[in-house]
Amino acid sequence: MGRRIAIILGLAALLNMYAGYAIIGRAAWAQNHPLAAWLLVAGFFLLQLAGPFGHRLFFAGHRRRPVSGFLVSTLDWSSYLAFGAMSCLVVFGIVADIITVVWAVIAPPAFDHAAFDHTVLLALLGATALTVLVGLVQATQPRVRRIDVPLPHLPSAFDGFKIAQISDLHVGPTIGKRYACRVVEIANAETPDVVALTGDFVDGTVADFAADVAPLADLRAPEGVFYVTGNHEYFWDAGQWIAVFRQLGARVLINEHELIRRGPDTIAVAGVTDISTRHMSGVHAFSPQRALAGVPEGVTKILLAHQPISFTAAAAAGADLQLSGHTHAGQYFPFTLLIGFFQRYARGLNRHGNMWIYVNRGTGYWGPPLRTGAPPEITLLTLRRA
User: Fold this and answer.
1) Among the three residues 139, 163, 198, which one is the final residue of a domain in this structure?
2) DSSP tag of 165
3) Are residues 317 and 336 in the same domain?
4) Neighbours of 28 (CB within 10 A)
5) What's the pTM?
6) What is the CATH number of the domain that holds 247?
7) For every one of its 386 residues, what pLDDT tens digit does the chain have, with 9 covering 90 and above?
8) Three-state DSSP state, 385
9) How far is CA 312 from CA 280, 281, 319, 354, 358, in A?
10) Mapping DSSP to helix (H, G, I), strand (E, B) and coil, where does residue 372 land?
11) Using CA atoms, how far apart are residues 272 and 286, in angstroms rounded to an integer?
């Protein structure tokens, strides 16, 4: 663990140095006062560490106290926003450097390169500021996305059956009880038959954040609230969090299923642990086959699986519809353009063979409180008889 943290810190330091160079190399003031400029870069880097490291090392338990809680919250927001700005500066800085190199080759000899650098710097800072501002506004405004899913063998009694999917809420340093209450209010207003909670609901310990997820106990669905773990639950003692979600009234699906009946007709709602557990031993080892074992032949099978890359195993197990999250659809620009290179199914409704896969953009966010171009989503999926 120590070696991994050292590698992460080293990479973060290099990224900050590059972002600093992208600005200092184009700013006359910074070039005239290089020491002061690089001290500002170092302070900006330390601010990014203050949230994820300082919060857990020095402020554990303090967020519940009125005065220190406000200070810790302010530090967390500042820290994660700084990290988001840095990541944008790096990507936009690469683009700026490419443009600068190309222009240096094709520009006429008498061209004013200092003025050009100043223009590029203003564009770099402006694009970063706009991305952060729009992303911050969008991150606090969850919205409902309505999707019809045609299923060829769906029983007629379940035509119009509604599933509200909430995924990747990431309750933690910058997402708390108020946001969770808003999500519950929006989901309940859609009067779903089932609520599906598809993992990554927490970014911290039960001691710190159990009170912030407590509003999820108010989710209402006549056929039940179902929950599966994401990879983040396993960072923070999944066993304790599973116990919390059971106390909140959720049916936790650990590689198992439940049948829902309407008269003579039946569908199955199954759930698997996160695919990161596939190398574990015991009941928590990811297994769609075990989750769907015993479901009667011909019954429509809906599988909750946090990561979309579960699709191969899910299809092999016979699922008709997989509900996932995890990708955040890239979360904020420009990473929304890159996520498709890393995930075959990164967002929305997708077809894989005979199975549908729906990938929720995420109801919260992870790390930087930004959702530029990929606003937070509560999905209302309506099953339709194809």
Assistant:
1) 139
2) E
3) yes
4) 11
5) 0.90
6) 3.60.21.10
7) 678 888 888 999 999 999 999 999 888 888 889 999 999 999 999 999 988 876 555 555 555 544 456 777 888 999 999 999 999 999 999 999 999 889 888 877 777 778 888 899 999 999 999 999 999 999 999 999 999 999 999 999 999 999 999 999 999 999 999 999 999 999 999 999 999 999 999 998 898 899 999 999 999 999 999 999 999 999 989 999 999 999 999 999 999 999 999 999 999 999 999 999 998 888 899 999 999 999 999 999 999 999 999 999 999 999 999 999 999 999 999 999 999 999 999 999 999 999 999 999 999 999 999 999 999 999 999 999 98
8) strand
9) 19, 21, 10, 11, 14
10) coil
11) 6
Residues 77 and 211 in one domain: no
- Residue 57: which domain range? 2-139
Backbone dihedral angles phi then psi of residue 261, each to the nearest 5 degrees? -115, 140
Dist CA 346 CA 348 (whole Å) = 7
- Edge-first strand order for the sheet with 348-352 is 256-262, 265-271, 300-304, 321-324, 355-359, 348-352
First to last CA, the chain: 50
CA dist., res. 364 & res. 175, Å (int): 8
Tokens 């309407």 found at? 262
236 and 350 belong to one structural domain:
yes
Q: Is the same domain home to 344 and 196?
A: yes
- How many Cβ atoms are within 10 Å of 150's Cβ, its own excluded? 11
CB 170 within 8 A of CB 201: yes
Q: Are residues 160 and 114 in the same domain?
A: no
Strand order, beta sheet including 143-151: 143-151, 377-385, 162-166, 194-198, 225-228, 251-252
DSSP state, residue 328:
G
Instruction: Determine the Cα–Cα distance for residues 3 and 204; give it in Å rounded to an integer.
Output: 21
